Amino acid sequence: MWQKVLTIVVIVLIVLGGGYYAYQQLIPPPEEENQGPVYSTKPVTRGDISVGVEVVGSLNPTSGGGIQVPGYRGSGGITYLIEEILVKEGDEVKKGQLLVRLKAPDLESQIKSLERKILEDKKDIAELLNIPVAEVDRLDASRGITLTTPIGGRITELQVREGEELKLGQIVAKVVDDSRFRLVAKLTPWEFQNVQIGQKVALRFAQFDGIIVGRVTDVNFEPVAEPASSLADPYKPAGSGQANEEHVYVHWVSIEADNPGLIRTGMLAEVGLPVDPKAETIDAFSARWTRYPSVVDGYVDEETIYSRAEAIVTNVYVKNGQKVNPGDKIVSLAGDDARQTIDAKVNELRDKEDELQRLYDQYNNLDILSPMDGVVAYIETDVGRTLTPGEWLGHIYNTSDMRMWSTVDDIDVLLVQQGAKVQVTVDALPGRTFEGEVNRVSTMGRDRDGMTMFEVDIKVVGSPELRPGMSARAFIQAGSAENVLLAPVEAIFEEDGRSMVEVLNPDGTVKVVPITVGLMDDRYAEVKEGLEEGELVITGSSADVLPSQRIQGKDTLLPSQPDDGSGGGGQGNGSGEGGV
Question: Where are the beta strands (DSSP E) in 164-319?
Fold first, then answer.
């Protein structure tokens, strides 16, 4: 009996408890009075910002060089065989590095054969002239027919004519190498103080503009007394006589310089000394010009050609001022009866020696070297292959200076400037960044699929890991700022053409503040004026939701119902919390 009563009581309590719980869940409590909209804010911070344009493209080398057999195509005369190939496609190489080693089986035999013929010809000439074989290469004029020039340069003071009889030791001509001239500067003791052998000096001539840089080759440490009349003194009074001749102590300083082609003997040069005798450069403005100009007294290399025998001039091969090379003929002299025979043999000997030198050059060029730093793009050959002079075997490209070509639209092109810094990444090398620079931006756009695009050429400082055709991404910097105020872009709006933000005050009130905006990316904008660090700017609020939406204080089992209008809006006293 009691068990049945207890069971009934428990069932009744469960039903009453469940009903009460369902009532609490189905019937929401009265909503509290709406206290106004809820704001989403972010603080104004200080930091760095960088803006730019992102582009994609592929990498290409800017320069390259060929892997080529020494010599010229069609020169003939010799063939090569590949003995060893020391590199393969993709290898990094340096300029002058050995790439392919060649061999020429028949070249060595040609050289030995020609060397034997030359030695035989020298023995024949030495026997005819009764001189040692070693002297054939420098024939004495008294034993030969033709006088030659010992150095290269220009002929001067040519004093003989055909048919003229020459005496032994008579001067025939002079050969001067006018590529370098010399002069002796005369410096006062004060000017001479810091002069050193090897230092650079400036030379200035009245006949033309600019300066010529020379070097001190010798100095005289003991001063020499020079008559004042022998010095070209620009400060000497005009018309001063020599009745009371004065002497001036000067130091002689020998100077040599390259001749640009305008300097002749007898010209007057002003001498400029550097303030620092060890200076590597000197110009007309930094030089200390000496008091006394100096006369160009000659050229560095000069040779006088004398007659080595009494003979009659039969041929003159040069003229005054003519440029000659070492060994060129100057004049021919009538000597003994063997003249014509000797001339023929000597000419034949010279031809063979020229041919031997050509073979030596080929023998010393059996190595194919890299013409530049770079990476081997391809090399198409095999060991044992027969090659001819000038034949191409492969190609090398330079990876240190590459190009990336891309395009930007008509909006982004305004942000791309020539010379702008660029950061380049390559998909094949994750984590690596390469520096670059905008080399060129096209000034005229082209239509591509209905969009106007502008071409951008980017110079990339590469590395050996890069390959032509690699896909790359580039960030072209359009501007950056450090340690500036930053505000989220979603907080900024425009009103009457001005940028504005809403600032949430500590007391909960809101004020609208005009600001001056600088750089802007997709998240933040630089604030130049109007805000201070730490202020809260409003990025959104509950007042921004649609009229059919509500902000719930807590969840219930029943869906929320739209406000029937009796409770008012955000600051009203209706039952909806934060309603609008």
Answer: 165-166, 171-187, 200-205, 211-219, 224-227, 247-258, 268-273, 288-289, 294-306, 311-316
**Across 246-263, average pLDDT:** 90
Percent of the chain whose predicted confidence (pLDDT) is above 70: 82
* DSSP sequence for 368-380: EE-SSSEEEEEE-
For domain 485-544, give the fold.
2.40.420
Residue 568 predicted with pLDDT over 60: no
The two structure tokens encoding residue 11: 């069932």
* Other C-beta atoms lying within 10 Å of the C-beta of residue 555: 8
User: Which amino acid appears at position 459 of this protein?
Assistant: K
Tokens linked to 174: 């002079």
Q: What's the pLDDT band for 269 if we cut at 50, 70, 90?
A: very high
| Fold category of 51-61+398-481 in CATH | Elongation Factor Tu (Ef-tu); domain 3 (2.40.30)
Please, are residues 374 and 93 in contact by the beta-carbon 8 Å criterion? yes
Strands (E), 489-558: 493-495, 498-504, 510-514, 516-520, 524-529, 536-541
Which of 257-271, 296-310, 329-343, 502-516 shows the lowest mean pLDDT across its residues?
Answer: 329-343
Q: What is the token pair recorded at 256?
A: 């040599």
The verdict on pTM exceeding 0.70 is: no
Q: What is the pLDDT of residues 373-406, one digit of tens each?
A: 888 877 877 787 877 777 788 888 887 788 889 9
Is the pLDDT at 119 greater than 70, yes or no? yes
* Rounded distance between C-alpha atoms, residue 370 and residue 373, angstroms: 7
Quote the CA–CA distance of 571 and 40 in Å, as a whole number.
17
- Rounded-to-integer distance, Cα 399 and Cα 466, Å: 7
Average pLDDT over residues 15-35: 65
- Only one residue has tokens 């009494």, namely 310
Q: What H or E segment, with its residue span, contains residue 150?
A: none
pLDDT for position 513: 92
Q: 531 phi and psi, to 5 degrees?
A: -130, 160
Cβ contact 513:501 at 8 Å? yes
Phi, psi values for residue 137, rounded to 5°: -70, -15
Please state, in angstroms and rounded to a whole number, the distance separating the CA atoms of residues 164 and 498.
103
DSSP 23: H
DSSP single-letter state for residue 15: H
In sequence order, what are the residues at sequence separation of 6 or more whose Cβ sits closer than 8 angstroms to the Cβ of residue 565?
A: none
- The dihedral over CA atoms of 466, 472, 477, 480, expressed in degrees to the nearest 10, equals -90
Give the right CATH number for 64-104+366-397 from 2.40.50.100, 2.60.40.10, 2.40.110.20, 3.30.200.20: 2.40.50.100
Q: List residues bridging with 395 in a β-sheet.
A: 66, 378
Cβ–Cβ under 8 Å, residues 371 and 99: no
Q: Which of the pair, 514 or 329, is modelled with greater confidence?
A: 514
**Can you give the residue ranges of every domain in the chain?**
51-61+398-481, 64-104+366-397, 149-234+246-324, 485-544
Report residue 544 as tokens: 């921004």
Q: Which two tokens stand for residue 265?
A: 């003997």
- Residue 2 CB partners (closer than 8 Å, separation 6+): none
pLDDT at 580 over 60: no
- Per-residue pLDDT, averaged over 533-556, amounts to 65
pLDDT at 141: 41
State residue 51's pLDDT score: 85
